[in-house]
Amino acid sequence: MIRIIVLMGLLLAFKAHAEPSGGFDSELATNVYTTALTFMAPRVVDPVPVSKLTQWGLRGLSTLDPRLTTELHDTRLRLLNQGKSVFETGIPKDETITGWVGTIIGMTNAAISVSSTVRRTSTTGIVQSFFDALCSHLDPYSRYIPPDEAGDDRERRSGRAGIGLSLTQRDAFSVVTDVIRDSPAASAGVRPGDTIIAVDGAVMKGRNVVSVSAMIEGPEDTSLTLTWKGRDGKTRESAFVRVMVPPETVFGERAGNLLLIRIAGFNDTTDTHLAHTLQDGLAGDRPPDGIVLDLRNNRGGLLRQAVTVADTFLPDGLVASSVGRAPAANHIWNSTPGELAEGVPLVILVDGRTASAAEVLAAALADRGRAVVVGSSTVGKGLVQTITPLPDGGELYVTWSRVIAPRGWPINGLGVMPQVCTSLGDAAVQRQLGALSEGDQPLKSAIIAHRTSRAPLAAAAIPAVRNACPAAEGRGEDLAVARSLINDRTAYATALLPPLVSP
Question: Fewest CB within a 10 Å sphere: which of 291, 403, 404, 427?
């Protein structure tokens, strides 16, 4: 009986392979899987054979229809429906991607032939389930982005076409709230508080802010004419060409004797906008006594931008390094001679949502003895992804290297350990500040344990290190702690790590 079922499965699968059901595009899927596995196999951080990647991915069929399972028995790969074998095929004799992609397509078509659920699933849905299952065995950050989301993802990385301003509704008018530095709007003299009067001659009074924003934005390299009234009461008009404007990520303000700079993320303009904000904040007759760099809730972005921002504050030396299997994944990032804000005390605020590139920046400035980190343990995302476009219009993110901080510890898993921990409660914070004022670092043993950790780390060892300062949301009191450190030079100097001496 089993032989008959297997034979019927083979016949059905052969027919499905020859004439795809449910709109499954075998040719497109073949191209997608071939491109993806060719890109992925030599780049994943820890080596995984193509055979194993394929078997992981095929478990996605069970996600689409839980009655389906796949299993490897000796040298045969089987598809089971409710525990009964309905199709089997011999596995390729080698690790060639072409052979394994053929296996994927054969198994998928067999699933289509016996499952109405899989049959109703689009090609994109089937491909998505394959990569979701595969990537779940790798790390939290390797992933497939389907075509409809990939376009939005690319737009978020590069910005959106417009003139670089944000609006809010105020009565019957749309009023400018923010103007991105160096954008067309900024160059034309548009300022926060200005009122939008007309777009291409159409009066904007009475229109909601969403409608006005939609009229200002549009395809890249198209033109518009904007009429606005400044806070001085004068009406101005200017012609613009829409460009891709990355969102603003740097926000500076004076907070008493401190310069507070918040970095919300890292995109193509973060480094230049940080430098301008820093120069503006240090200018004038009353320069700040210290700088607070707020990286709380910063989920990261472009790694190279974080390195350049670190370079802004550092003399020449090591910022970070990355280690991977592919030669191009191995890199050393160094800062160059010269620094802005030399000698000005610097405190960095982090929390349990500070991740990725933001952690690289905090780690570099702390390890080099340039800043005191205040807050809680950070996320611990110290893996770098590389991206490739796929033939279906989607994108594949593959983790291909680990980031190593200047003192040699891996950021991934550990995160950044603050020198002043605020997640242990107010009483603990006051004890820490009091001890630092007397020249004693109460977190010394925890910081040493953290900074002397080396990859690869056993999963069980990570919580023991991180629990000295548990991850938590940023607190309103964090800024007060930063101010206290900057005002108490002994406490600040005690909290600083000693400068890193180059070998």
Answer: 427
Q: What CATH architecture is 250-383+399-495?
A: Alpha-Beta Complex (3.90)
**Contact (Cβ atoms closer than 8 angstroms) between residue 341 and residue 464:** no
Task: Give 329's DSSP letter.
Answer: G
What average pLDDT does this structure show over 18-30? Answer: 74
Q: Taken in order 148, 154, 155, 156, is the CA torsion positive or negative?
A: positive
CA dist 474 and 458 (Å) reads 28
Give the pLDDT mean for 306-310: 97
In the 8-state DSSP scheme, what is residue 166? E
208 neighbors 169 (Cβ within 8 angstroms)? yes
3 state DSSP class of 154: helix
Domain boundaries, the chain: 2-138, 160-245, 250-383+399-495
For residues 131 and 144, the answer to whether their CB atoms sit within 8 Å is: yes
Q: Which of 19-33, 55-69, 235-249 has the highest mean pLDDT?
A: 55-69
CA dihedral over 98, 104, 107, 110, signed as positive or negative: negative
Q: Is the peptide bond before 456 cis (omega within 30 degrees of 0)?
A: yes
In single-letter form, the type of residue at position 188 comes to A
Supply 347's token pair.
Answer: 């405190």
Instruction: Give burial (CB, 10 Å; 0-12/13-18/19+) of 293.
Output: buried
Strands of 200-282 (E only): list them: 202-203, 223-229, 235-241, 243-245, 250-255, 258-263
Coil vs helix vs strand at 440: coil
Helices 26-40/97-114 angle, 10° precision: 140
**Paired strand residues for 347:** 292, 372
Q: What is the CATH topology of the domain spanning 160-245?
A: Pdz3 Domain (2.30.42)
The span from the CA of 491 to the CA of 485, in Å, is 6
Per-residue burial over 365-402, b if 16 or more Cβ lie within 10 Å, else e, is: bbbbebbbbbbbbbbbbbbbbbeeebebebbbbbbbbb
Per the confidence metrics, is the pTM higher than 0.85? Answer: no
Edge-to-edge strand order for the sheet containing 84-90? 68-73, 76-81, 84-90
* Strand 223-229, strand 202-203: pairing: unpaired
Share of the chain above pLDDT 90, in %: 84
The residues near 40 (Cβ < 8 Å, ≥ 6 apart) are: 53, 396, 398
Q: Are the CB atoms for 129 and 57 separated by under 8 Å?
A: no
Residue closest to 186 by CA, chosen among 249, 194, 168: 194
The pLDDT value given to residue 112: 97
Distance, CA of 169 to CA of 210 (rounded, Å): 9
Residue whose token pair is 């820890």:
46
Q: Where are the beta strands (DSSP E) in 290-434?
A: 290-294, 317-323, 331-335, 346-350, 372-375, 383-389, 395-404, 420-421
Q: Which has the closest alpha carbon to 450: 478, 491, 408?
A: 408
